[in-house]
Amino acid sequence: MKKAIAIIMVLALSLSVLVASVTEDEAVSIALSDAGIAREDAEWLRSHRDRDDGRLYYDVEFRSADGKWEYEIDSESGRIVGFEFDEEKARAIPSGGIDRAEAERVALSDAGLGRGDVSAFRMESDREHGMLIYEVSFRTSDSEYEYDISSEDGSVLKASWEKRGRVRGDRDSRLSNDEAESIALEAIGGDADRISVWEERDDGRYWYEATAEIDGYRFEVDIAGTGEVVSIERSLRGF
Fold it and tell me: Taken in order 41, 47, 53, 56, is the CA torsion positive or negative?
């Protein structure tokens, strides 16, 4: 009987180690509170539960205007057991430039979407060609988007859209160059200064790549032989 009770106690103790007393959302709140940052001001917020040397903890990461924050929160007590702040990843906004909130608005507006329409939203700052830029990415149920936004004036320097999922239709579907050109022009919404189309065959399918220039932007459009547009990229000329 005593042996059975001892086994039960051991199992109960083991179970208490496996079950977290602190929820993941509570761990995120603990980290944000310690950093003095409101949840709505945290960018690229990620969290997950992990184990180290038999100890369960939550790994919480996010960015603010000041830099990148990383926390380890004990899943049993809610105590902060690890902390790291990387100020070097922060970038100063140039005088007269736009902030991260405005960069988010520019990207979503260009995509014709609202903040509630997208998931996996991420934003980072970087330098390219001596310019501070915001790199913004997000997705919807059927598409992925990426943007490079100038911090100086909010202009779109690069943008890409890609369809998620399989291409529909017959593997042997084929377009004429004129048909592919017409589809590309409709996809980019304008008459091109010049346009070129190439046909390729890959894994039994016909594919078309169209390149065009409109109003200082270079476009690349990928089209399946079915006529379905699968990706569009545009970049400011010279960038």
Answer: positive
